[in-house]
Fold:
Amino acid sequence: MIQISERVASLSPSATLAMSQKSAQLRASGVDVINMSVGEPDFDTPAHIKEAAKRAIDENYSRYTPVAGYLSLREAVSAKLRSENGLEFDPSRIVVGNGAKQELCNVVLATVNPGDEVLIPVPAWVSYVEMVKLAGGVPVLVHAGLETDFKISPEQLEAAVTPRTRLLMLNSPSNPTGSIYTREELEAFAEVLRRYPDVLVLSDEIYEHISFAGPVASIARCGGMSDRVVVVNGVSKAYAMTGWRIGYMAGPEPVAKAVTKLQGQYTSGASSIAQKAAEAAYTGSQECVEEMREAFRRRRDLIVELASDIPGWMVNRPDGAFYLFPDVSALIGREIGGRRIETSGDYVMYLLEVANVATVDGAAFCAPGYIRLSYATSDDNIREAMRRIREATLR
Ligand code: PMP
Ligand code: GLU
Structure:
């Protein structure tokens, strides 16, 4: 009999990727599904970045790369962190890997021992809890709802810290809520954290460039935090490069060394071609980032307006990322279209099967009673999806 390890058997599959696959299958079978489940820009990778990749092939960037990534790319990341974020990270403290996802998981595996507690403000992206479980850590969820714009307070943070707390996973702008912590709010967290020197902060800044509220603050710049924060970011969202799989961590030297050791044993350095493309993304014109942000801002305005008109939904106005996270708890316990809706998951299935719109159950983000919609799709798709959802919900 084939054994599957408990480590993997106890993991939940990624709900975002699962829903996206389900929607792709339905589409392949001829159903006209609008996919608002997975979160990825619908734009093509900008031309100058693709050119850099083609050049890299012709110039024979075809060998194993250094485990931590090409020095030239780490220098470009270091320069980006200095000029855009005011952060000083020598390239020796930067590790490039296969997407921000791998670097997040690497940092968790490199810093969390079995039994250690990891604070996760929720709603949180589907993979955080699973990464902590993989490390044998204990996820400690700190809840926030629509009424506080999905932001936790410094008091909640302090109340959740125990002598076993080793890590805080922050994500601003947030997936799934689009909320952004202001510099003042992050300073208030830093003030709490200064009292607990054993807690490291993992700051996932992958949606940094998709902000409609100006430049996004990093907790790494807050007082006393510079040696205690690992920043994770990458090219997936800002440069429409989800398939290229390049992300990085920048943090204290011992963490960078541990992550390099780990990566050296199980994946090696990331793709040579994709790294050269990422280097072009960081060193080339940033106009493309601006253009995509403006498109997302327009779609945010559109979806908020249309979603506010759907019965049973409560929405806020997210400041960043490309997600809307409506509270649909008013629909729970009701009968819609002849079907009893007992959970937000039932509603998501109803929307998929009846309205042919794919969304994700908030439960996957530790927030049952909500659903997530990615508006990284055309204005026409957004209009049609909202029309279908409204109509199906009124049945
Ligand atoms: N963090 C968050 C919050 C995300 O939404 C994503 C998107 N998948 C990632 C990290 C990972 O991004 P990637 O691995 O594509 O760089
Ligand atoms: N982060 C995206 C999402 O939440 C991509 C899918 C994933 O990696 O989970 O939909």
Remarks:
- Residues 341 and 347 are 6 Å apart (CA to CA).
